[in-house]
Write a structure and sequence with these properties.
heterodimer, A: about 525 residues, alpha/beta, Amidase signature (AS) enzymes, 11 strands, B: about 100 residues, mainly alpha, 3 helices, 2 strands, about 35% helix, flat
Chain lengths: ~525, ~100
């Protein structure tokens, strides 16, 4: 370490303190992160677009507002990476697809607007599976993102770019979107924190829709408190989204600070674990359960039998909604147009444009949805899947009669190798087996790191699930577990990753011998 | 049970492609007929528990008619709306011919 502290090593809340006390400027913070992106993103490929000029301009605005004594929000001047599925004026939005290559949206998503209003400095747009369809970012038309723990492995998906950006210290905060696990599974496999808020808790206006009844944007961060601060910045009622909830935002920051599970009843979901889950995932999960008990929580097993049908229902509901939502990409008003040579009809040009503009997974799901919704199959497929959705909601309701939150491993395995499941859709879909039930029911859920799997030294995530609009409970559990693990490890798990070296306090991390950091804390 | 999900023919995939406006290649027809059959075979198990007494759920939250004040505000102006168009003419989107030859 040099005498100048590396500003990319701090959490969002630490950066906020440094800027509030004028120890550093927002411009210095933004520059440090932009330089970090330049240095490491060639290997990681978390970003599809870096907005250096715009970021420095926003940072300067914050610095001058602060100099004039303006009262600024808790995240003013903190840099952030925005998933490329949310529109932002002044930058391209591609959704990881060729069909939107070069598209500059004419408006800001509500999430983007709230980030700007909070004084958050948007560094750029992050990589993702095309239209958020995937669990590895390998379905991005612009090439995969690499996991900072091992560059040959997937960073999760669809929000692999957002998770990798914070795991590689390119940004302290990121926005993801979660339709079946696209915030939580990337968080799990990169050793970071990710939260899917209650459906309707964060506006979907300007979030390019995959499956409208499942999509939800949420915070990604390296700590539970940072996620809470970002959650509060983006959440709340928005008249521009008719599914936005007219309810007060749960007090997630207070809950993250309280970080207390004493007396809490925690349900272990019997159907989400055991067979099919990697031994190291099960081991770290069992240890975390013991830790929660030690912290005063009462842990009981609960059964949600319909969860066994969640994956099947999801892969009917999602493609059905997606095939309808993606019909708007027709090369007429925006996006790529192919084959318009004057001889072809609009229908031919649309078909050629979509054929050239969409990747394999998107076409697969569009056809699956078209099939499930077609006459003669509708009742058996889409209709049945909607009934399963009811059964899953009933399972959650019964479970939450007994307990305050539910827990499970976030994903059945640690990060797998790039290419391993690329052309085996069913194997790829299994990654989201533990996260999907939450989206079908609209609940809130968090993934946070609980250690490294002994067999491969890769991060394992624990999922906490809360009832709708009880998002604060996620942060109580997450905060308590994180503090306990921090004390045990002498730092955050991510600090022991190859890209985290130099930031941790000294201390061993289970399962990763020989990895200790410097001491900048 | 939906009948015979294990067999999705190339003709069926081609038909889905036409419905979904995807000009699929010959290779894709082969590839997707096998993959769609596998996926449909796996997801068809929803019918095992979807009994007639279970109501369908289409949305996670119990929302009914959602209203907001009808406040006039500026809409997207013409230049912004056309800025990303693949082809525009005289302040309008230019589209390929909409009728087939026959």
């Amino acid at each position: 370490m040099t005498s100048t502290p590396d500003l990319t090593r701090f959490t969002a809340s630490q950066l906020s303190e440094l800027m509030t006390s004028r120890a550093v400027s927002a411009r210095e913070v933004a520059s440090a992160h932009l330089d970090r992106i330049e240095a490491v993103d060639g290997d990681i490929h978390a970003f599809l677009h870096v907005d250096r000029e715009g970021a420095l301009r926003s940072a300067d605005d914050i610095d001058s507002a602060r100099a004039q004594g303006a009262s600024l929000g808790p995240l003013a001047g903190v840099p952030l990476a925005l998933k490329d599925v949310l529109t932002m004026k002044g930058a391209p939005t591609t959704c990881g697809s060729r069909i939107l290559e070069g598209w500059h949206p004419p408006y800001d998503a509500t999430v983007t607007r709230r980030l700007r209003e909070a004084g958050i400095v948007i560094l750029g747009k992050t990589n993702m599976d095309e239209f958020a369809m995937g669990s590895s970012t390998e379905h991005s038309a612009y090439g995969p993102t690499h996991n900072p723990w091992d560059l040959d492995r997937i960073p999760g998906g669809s929000g692999g770019g957002s998770a990798a950006a914070i795991a590689a210290y390119e940004a302290p905060l990121a926005i993801g979107t979660d339709t079946g696990g696209s915030i939580r599974q990337p968080a799990a496999v990169t050793g970071t924190v990710g939260v899917k808020p209650t459906y309707g808790g964060v506006s979907r206006y300007g979030l390019v829709a995959l499956a409208s009844s499942l999509d939800q944007a949420g915070p990604c961060a390296r700590t539970v408190l940072d996620a809470a601060l970002l959650h509060e910045a983006i959440a709340g009622y928005d008249p521009m989204d008719s599914t936005s909830l007219r309810e007060p935002v749960p007090e997630v920051v207070a809950a993250a600070k309280r970080a207390d599970v004493a007396g809490m009843r925690i349900g272990l979901v019997k159907e989400l674990g055991g067979e099919g889950y990697q031994p190291g995932v099960r081991q770290r999960f069992a240890e975390a359960v013991t830790l929660l008990e030690k912290l005063g929580a009462e842990v009981v097993e609960v059964s949600c039998p319909s969860f066994d049908y969640a994956l099947a229902a999801y892969y009917l509901i999602l493609p059905s909604e997606a095939s309808s939502n993606l019909a708007k990409f027709d090369g007429i008003r925006y996006g790529q147009r192919v084959g318009d040579d004057g001889s072809r009809s609009v229908e031919e040009v649309m078909s050629l444009s979509r054929e050239a503009g969409f990747g394999a997974e998107v076409k697969r799901r569009i056809m699956l949805g078209t099939y499930a919704l077609s006459s003669g199959y509708y009742d058996a497929y889409y209709g049945s899947a909607q009934k399963v959705r009811t059964l899953i909601q009933r399972d959650f309701a019964a479970a939450f009669d007994q307990v305050d939150v539910l827990i499970s491993p976030t994903a059945p395995t640690t990060a797998f190798k790039l290419g391993e499941k690329l052309d085996d859709p069913l194997a790829m879909y299994l990654n989201d087996i533990a996260t999907i039930p939450v989206n079908l029911a609209g609940n809130a859920a968090m993934s946070l790191p609980i250690g490294l799997a002994p067999e491969d030294g890769l991060p394992v995530g624990l999922q906490v699930i809360a009832p709708a609009m009880a998002d604060d409970r996620l942060y109580r559990v997450g905060g308590a577990l994180e503090r306990e693990l921090f004390n045990r490890w002498g730092g955050l798990l991510i600090e022991s990753s190859p890209y985290g070296a130099g930031s941790a306090s000294d201390g061993p991390v289970p399962g990763r011998p020989g990895q200790t950091g410097g001491s900048s804390r | 049970m939906p009948e015979n999900t294990s067999a999705i023919t190339r003709e069926q995939v081609a038909h889905l492609g036409r419905l979904a406006r995807l000009s699929l290649t010959e290779d894709e027809l082969d590839h997707y007929s096998a993959q769609l059959a596998d996926i449909l075979g796996a997801v068809a198990r929803v019918t095992e528990v979807a009994t007639p007494d279970v109501p369908a759920t289409s949305h996670p939250m119990p929302l009914q008619n959602v209203f907001r004040e009808d406040v006039p505000r500026p809409s997207l102006d013409q230049a912004d709306a056309l800025a990303a168009a693949p082809a525009a003419e005289d302040g309008r989107f230019r589209v390929p011919r909409i009728l087939d030859e026959e």
